[in-house]
C-alpha cells in the first residue's frame, strides 16, 4: 500500500499529508528536499525556480539529465501533482510572492540578497539552508538556530546581513561544521542531498 510504512512511522500522517510547503530553489539541496517530502506523502508542494538544467548540474541535481530544460518543467513531470512557479528569486520578486497559504517555506537559495529577503518575508515559518558546497562529510551536518551556526562562512554572511537589517527573529538553519575545502565550485551530492533531506526531516519531525 502506498505510504504504508510512512503511516506506521508518522502517527499524525493525515496532518502531514495536508501540509502546504513552498520550496524556493530546486538545485542540489532543494531538489532533494522535494524528493523527501514527496516520498513521505506530503500532497501540497510548490517549487519556485527559474533556471534550466546545465551539464555541470549532473553531479548533484535531480532531473539534471534533461540538459537545457527548465527545472520546474522537468520536476513537474517527475513529481506529478506538485505545483511550480517559474520565477527568478530576486529580492524584488520575493516581495511579490504570496506566502500566507504555506505552512512552511524551505529556503534553498544560493544568492545572499535573495535569501535575506525570503527570510524576512517568510519568517517565522521558514527553515534555511546554509552552505552545502565544498564539503564531503554528511555526518558534520547540523540543524540549529541561525544564531548558533558556526564554521560555515556563508552562514556567517547571513548572520551579519541579518544583524545589519536589525532582524531580531530566530529560525532553524541547516549547516555543516566541516571546514570548506579550498576549491572552485566543488560540490558533492552526498552532502548537498543530505542538506535537502535534513530540511525535510526538520519540517516533518513533529508528526511522529
Please, could you describe this protein's structure?
The protein has 8 helices and 7 strands; from the N terminus they run H-H-E-H-E-H-E-H-E-H-E-E-H-E-H. A 7-stranded mixed sheet has the order 3-2-1-4-5-7-6, with helices on both faces. Helix 3 (30-39) links the parallel strand 1 and strand 2 (44-49). The protein is globular. The chain has helices spanning 4-9, 13-17, 30-39, 71-78, 91-96, 112-122, 153-164, 189-204, and strands at 20-24, 44-49, 83-86, 104-107, 126-129, 141-145, 172-176. Helix 3 packs across helix 8. The longest helix is centred in the C-terminal third of the chain and has 16 residues, at 189-204. The chain is 36% helix and 16% strand. It has a single domain (4-207), classed as NAD(P)-binding Rossmann-like Domain (Rossmann fold). The chain is an alpha/beta fold and 208 residues long.
| Oligomerization state | single chain
Number of H- or I-type helical stretches: 8
Rg, nearest Å: 16 Å
Strands side by side in the biggest sheet: 3-2-1-4-5-7-6
Alpha-beta content class? alpha/beta
Average per-residue pLDDT, rounded, comes to: 97
> What coarse outline follows from CA principal-axis ratios?
globular
Number of strands: 7
| Number of domain units | 1
CATH architecture, please?
A: 3-Layer(aba) Sandwich
Spatial separation of the terminal alpha carbons:
19 Å
Query: Which regions contain 5 or more consecutive residues with pLDDT less than 50?
Result: none
Quote the beta fraction.
15-25%
Along the chain, the helix and strand elements come as: HHEHEHEHEHEEHEH
Query: According to CATH, what is the topology?
Result: Rossmann fold
Q: Describe the biggest sheet? A: 7 strands, mixed
**Portion of residues in helices?**
25-40%
Query: In the CATH hierarchy, what is the class?
Result: Alpha Beta
CATH superfamily: NAD(P)-binding Rossmann-like Domain
